Amino acid sequence: MKNITDSFLSLGYWPSARSFGFNTDILATNPINLSVVLGVLVFFGKGVCASCLLSDLLDNRKQRILKTIRNSEELREGAIEQLEKARARLRKVETEADRFRVNGYSEIEREKLNLINSIYTTLEQLENYKNETIHFEQQRAINQVRQRVFQQALQGALGTLNSCLNNELHLRTISANIGMFGEMKDIK
């Protein structure tokens, strides 16, 4: 990197700047002097109002801190209120849950008893149906046995009659029956 004095020398602005010394050219030194004077004024001028400026800065900072603390306190109070509301809702929900649990258990017990009673009723009905079916089947079996016994007795009687009857006995039986029929007619 080039030296600043070398760049100014090459442009021809400060021909005698190669050595340290005072520059008596007022036009060349004026911007430098003005910047130094302004720097000194600003630096030392702050000291005069520095206490005002510093107190203003401190007051502003204090006000911001107090405002932040107030906001934090308000937020904390709001959070505490919300927490209390949430706790109240939780207690309410827990109470309702306990009530539902108790009601649910009693409802379950009631339903269980209803189901047991219903099952007993159904079992009684099934027992009655079974007994009726057994009775019906017994009656049907008895009727079937009666019919078979009657048919067998009838077949046996017919077989006996057919084997015992001859033409003469047959004619006498018919005559006797006709005679009985005639007597019955007279009685009426």
Structure, explained:
This protein has three helices and no strands. It is mainly α and 188 residues long. It is rod-shaped and about 190 Å long. The model is unreliable at 1-12 (pLDDT under 50).
Keywords:
single chain; mainly alpha
Secondary-structure topology with pairs:
Elements: H1 4-11, H2 26-164, H3 167-187
What proportion strand?
under 5%
Total strands: 0
Order of helices and strands: HHH
Kindly report how far apart the N and C termini lie. 166 Å
Mean pLDDT over all positions: 80
So what's the oligomer here?
single chain
Low-confidence stretches: 1-12
Determine the structural class based on helices, strands and strand pairing: mainly alpha
What is the structure about, briefly put?
The chain is 89% helix and 0% strand. The chain is mainly alpha-helical.
